[in-house]
Amino acid sequence: MITANKINYAIGDTPILDELSVALQPGSVTAILGPNGAGKSTLMKCLCGTLQPQSGSINIAGTDLQTYSLPELSRRRAVLSQSTAINFPFTVLELVLMGRNPHVNRRESVEDNQIAQEALDSVDAWSLKNRIFPTLSGGEQQRVQLARVLAQIWGQKQAYLFLDEPTAALDLKHQHQIFKLIRKFSRSQGMTVCVIIHDPHLAQRYCDQAILMHNGKVFAAGLIDDVLSPDNIQRVFEIPPDWLTRS
Amino acid sequence: MLARQLTIPLPFVGWRVSALGLLSLMLLLALLMAVSIGAVYIPLSSILVGVLSDQQLAVMTSIRLPRVLLSAIVGAALAVSGAAMQSLFRNPLADPGVIGIASGAALAVAIVIVLAGPLTGVLALYSLSLAAFSGGLVTCLLIFRFTGMSGTFSATYMLLAGIAINTVSGAATGFLTYLSDDQQLRALTFWTMGSFGGALWPAVLVCATVVLPATLLLFRYARNLNILLLGDENARHLGVDSKGLQRRVIICTALTVGAAVAVSGIIGFVGLVVPHLIRLTIGPDNRILLPASALLGALLLVFADTVARTIVAPAELPVGILTSLIGGPFFLWLLIKQYAGRMGM
Fold first, then answer.
1. Measured between CA atoms, how close is B339 to chain A, in angstroms?
2. What residue of A is the nearest CA neighbor of B278?
3. Which of A81, A88, A117 sits opposite B279 (nearest CB)?
4. B8 in contact with A, Cβ within 8 Å
5. What are the pLDDT digits (tens) for B176-217?
6. What would the DSSP string read from start to end of A149-167?
7. Which tens digits make up the pLDDT trace of A19-56?
8. What are the DSSP calls for A78-142, one per residue?
9. For A37, B150, B247, B300, which has the most beta carbons within 10 A of its beta carbon?
């Protein structure tokens, strides 16, 4: 379980997160939703330890996030963030194997290799295994990066998975496939999953909990169906009611 | 779970390791050939059997051997630092010469030559190396800061910063040339062209004691350098302290480039061409790329220096001119290729 208690984060004088408190439950998928600039990415970066909030505390399994070492954290917590372009001709399999880095001593074992291949297969990218990564399409690259992130915590009990818009570049089939997979992992391995997502329909279908953010604050949090009520969505996203229905 | 799993061997093992063996063998042959060829011909068979005239022995031990070894060490140093720098900047165009680190180091050495006069001996060479290291370090940090400022490591910023630094160091070195007397002038000119002429054992000793430890350290960082290519943040998520790693790699590359520049001047494009050839043939994994680059860099420069000192005999060509002649067009080709790739051509 991850809890954030009254965290504040500001850039200069502009507050990005304002006295914000949230909790992520093990074995469930939590969606973070909100308009652009609401502070979703900043919240996720604080929760996974990339950014340190200026005040307030974040606990993972009852222990302060700051007391974990980088390698310790990396064996249990994986993050899919906006990716840096890769200018070197690594194969897809080599890239996914990089996800095993926290578990590797000198070089990857046969087991690491097997995990990398299973992870690739799970995101429907098995056929890409020998392709050169930079030559893949955007959607293919996203799936391979996701496989790398999954390989990092493959088979770990009580792991934490953070995903920043994991399906942004994916077609419909793969959007649903990826979310089914994420939900399966959270159920079967007691994984705590936190995902930033823009599509309320997709969120409602695959996530258990939701955090709806507005101007650096939690507008509503709890079970997904309660949080994503038409009323809440209209107020946070400032859209007229008929935009949500087909009319 | 699936029958088709485990069909691929691990990327690290197998023929990639044997490629290292092959490169080592080729380097050994090149070293032997280079010792054999020259104004005084020393037959390979005599070297191997150990039957040499006094003259041959003297030429071999006090002239040829130090020169050949020095060119090998400098070649390895330049190639490894080029490969490491390319991971650091996440760009295959990064090269100690192109982005101005070599010229920053050269400027520092030029200052020492002009202010302190011609230097000889081991201690003097160490002080030149130290000066070159400081110059290289300052330029490397400067470019790294400048390139990272935009948030992403853009090749444009890196190359533009390199142009600016090359221009400034060029001007400053020019000014020093203007100030210097005839003897200093000659030393400066030949030295900036890059040459192994007059290489003696002290240079080999100084260069080896700096380059070897720094190179071995870089080999140790190889796996984390792979991870660094995923980006600063992603590397941290995978347990790699990116800031610390970047700092250590900058220091190691500045040390190797500094030592190379101090003993041989500016020898361009080795750091660009060699890692690229290795990536094309063996692959981009730094655990193989770094040692393979060291071997091929040594091989290439031993070969180039042998050509440089025999092609216009009895005179000799500065080897830096030769490498730039080949490396310049190669760099252009790389630039065009990268641009074409981005444009989807």
1. 12
2. A89
3. A88
4. yes
5. 888 888 877 877 776 777 777 767 888 898 889 999 999 999
6. HHHHTTT-TT-EEEEESTT
7. 899 999 999 999 999 999 899 999 999 998 889 999 99
8. EEE-SPPP--S--BHHHHHHHTTGGG-SSS--HHHHHHHHHHHHHTT-GGGTTSBGGGS-HHHHH
9. B300
